[in-house]
Amino acid sequence: MMKKTVISSILLLFAVFVFSQENTNKITELKELDISMYPVPKEGFSLYTIQLEPKQNEANFQIELYAEKIEEVDCNKYQLLGEFIKHNLEGWGYSYYEFNSNGDIMGTRMACPNSSKHEEFVKSSVILVRYNSNIPIVVYLPNKMSLKYKIWERNEVEFEAKQQ
User: Fold this and answer.
1) How far is CA 60 from CA 76, 156, 158, in A?
2) What is the structure's pLDDT at 17?
3) Which Pfam families match (predicted)?
């Protein structure tokens, strides 16, 4: 009984060691991505990067990007006005994105029963970007805005539309 416990403990420790080494290597790989070829941010802009972990079948994934900023709002629904523009990095074949916005927001115009205002993140419209763990996603945003993203996975189930 004691031998089984000792052997089980040794196997468990070995598995933990191997798993931690794999995760350490992944983190190291992500840190080694080079962004030096990308332009320096224009005045009034900040540079954001997203470095994705490798996945099997990366074609089944997409990244949803959106900008946001804190605004004082009421009960209405608001959206940050602006546009993501895709640029090509000359000589590299890479892309980067720039969010052009003067910071204006638009919203619904419902009457709010309680006219109190509060601070809230107001999001822009989204852009979908191909998942690619080999190169970073590089985005330039106006200062005082932040970049958020979601990872979307394609459903393997296909549906057929009904012909009319």
Assistant:
1) 36, 9, 13
2) 56
3) Ecotin
